[in-house]
Design goal:
Number of strands: 16
Largest sheet: 8 strands, mixed
Bound molecules: adenosine monophosphate
CATH superfamily of the largest domain: Bira Bifunctional Protein, Domain 2
Shape: elongated
CATH topology of the largest domain: BirA Bifunctional Protein, domain 2
Strand content: 15-25%
Oligomer: single chain
Order of helices and strands: HEEHHEEHEEHEHHHEEEHEHEHEHEHEEH
Distance between the termini: 56 Å
């Protein structure tokens, strides 16, 4: 063993406002990713990745120069080539840029996209507020029908509900240029109410609410929901969770942005989208002890004794994986007892044990980890024997459940 050096240097720490996502939290991330992908598939959305870095001008134009997200919180820099760039504070601007740049305007409309990606805001760090945080979001570009608004609201609502959260929708219409312009100064200071809507916006909003009733989505009209970013028109909503003290905690939000594509240089294209904050959702899931999927369990644990057995095990593991049998091992461990304890801890269904005797005989021991029964089988048939037992195991489990 080489001599271990004692620590003497100072430790470089995590950047303020950032967060490591450690292995013990990944069960939440995987669950949310799966839920989002399944919902996207069911509702016909396609995945899109846009770069973390975009031209600063993109966010100034799309999100608005005066907004906090751009004027105070954006991570902006000039790169080595003199370009003014920023880390994205949100993802809609990038999606709209890509939509225009790749001619998606000419595809059959609407174009339905979703993302799951980190965002960056130099926010004041506090509970549930980070400087790098993840959002998943859904965007529908090229459709004006209020039924889409209701579907998007319900999509955001049901995803969070299915994650075990007790949420409700706060919804509002902030109108469009036709109805709001005349009272825009007023709107800056006072909450906008739906009474100011022009006929068209009013009709649109009434239909959205009718569809929401149809969908049994729990919602409240809330004139305070105006959303922070400049590009919103008409329908705006937030998905909130009510804390025990009655405080509203926003887990996500969205709105129509019928002018944004035009503003970004494309032709007038109605659109709508929403984004939800993953860390906030996870914090809430922990609070309410939301149900999590069962931990992953390996089908087979491969245990070895002796150097020849370890070599043989390398092949056996490859063969098992090739046949889609999930495996686990601790080949660097030499003691059999420790290995079997590990197999037990990991919840393996079977263990394949290779010792010196087995190597000489060309065999392997299959141990049923539930009852400890062991059988000797020909090593060449090991994978098949394992598969046979796994099938029996599965059938027995199904039968037990159906009783
Ligand atoms: P917004 O893009 O501001 O509408 O935010 C949408 C959602 O993203 C919010 O409801 C939060 O769940 C989440 N979010 C926004 N800012 C942060 C942040 N600094 N840290 C963590 N989550 C955030």
């Amino acid at each position: 063993m080489p001599k271990v050096k004692k620590a003497s240097k100072s430790v470089i720490k995590l950047v303020k406002g950032m967060k490591d996502i450690l292995p013990n939290e990944q069960v939440y991330w995987e669950l949310i990713r799966n839920k989002v992908s399944a919902a996207a598939r069911d509702y016909g959305f396609q995945y899109i990745d846009t770069p973390v870095v975009e031209a600063t001008a993109l966010f100034k134009r799309a999100v608005g120069e005066e907004t906090d997200a751009v004027s105070k919180e954006m991570y902006s820099f000039v790169d080595q080539g003199g370009e003014k760039l920023s880390l994205r504070p949100e993802n809609t601007a990038g999606v709209v840029r890509a939509y225009i740049e790749h001619g998606m305007l000419n595809l059959p409309q609407p174009v339905k996209l979703f993302y799951f990606a980190p965002q960056f805001r130099h926010d004041k760090p506090q509970a549930g507020r980070y400087r790098q945080f993840w959002q998943f979001g859904f965007e529908v570009l090229g459709e004006n029908d209020p039924i889409v608004d209701a579907q998007m609201i319900s999509l955001s609502y049901f995803i969070l509900q299915e994650l075990g959260l007790n949420v409700e929708v706060q919804v509002n219409s902030i109108g469009d240029d036709n109805c709001v312009k005349k009272c825009q100064d007023l709107a800056k200071d006072a909450p906008q109410t739906v009474d100011h809507l022009c006929d068209e916006c009013n009709k649109h909003f009434t239909s959205v609410l009718e569809y929401l009733d149809e969908l049994d989505v729990k919602y409240n009209l809330n004139s305070k929901i105006v959303r922070g970013l400049d590009y919103y028109t008409r329908t705006a909503w937030e998905i909130v969770e009510t804390s025990e003290e009655g405080k509203l905690n926003a887990l996500g939000g969205g709105g129509r942005y019928d002018d944004l594509v035009y503003l970004m240089g494309g032709r007038q294209t109605p659109a709508i989208g929403f984004a939800c904050g993953v860390e906030r959702i996870i914090n809430k899931m922990k609070d309410v002890k939301a149900p999590l999927p069962e931990n992953w369990r390996p089908d087979v644990y491969v245990a070895t004794l002796g150097p020849e057995a370890r070599k043989k095990a390398l092949h056996l593991l490859l063969e098992l994986r090739k046949e889609n049998v999930s495996v686990s091992e601790d080949l660097a461990k030499t003691g059999l007892k420790g290995q079997l304890e590990s197999a037990d801890k990991k919840g393996a269904r079977f263990a394949l044990i290779l010792g010196q005797k087995e190597i000489v005989d060309g065999t392997v021991l299959i141990r049923d980890m539930e009852n400890g029964v062991q059988e000797v089988v020909d090593i060449k048939k090991a994978v098949k024997e394992v598969q046979k037992r796994l099938e029996h195991h599965l059938i027995a489990k199904v039968l037990k459940k159906s009783k």
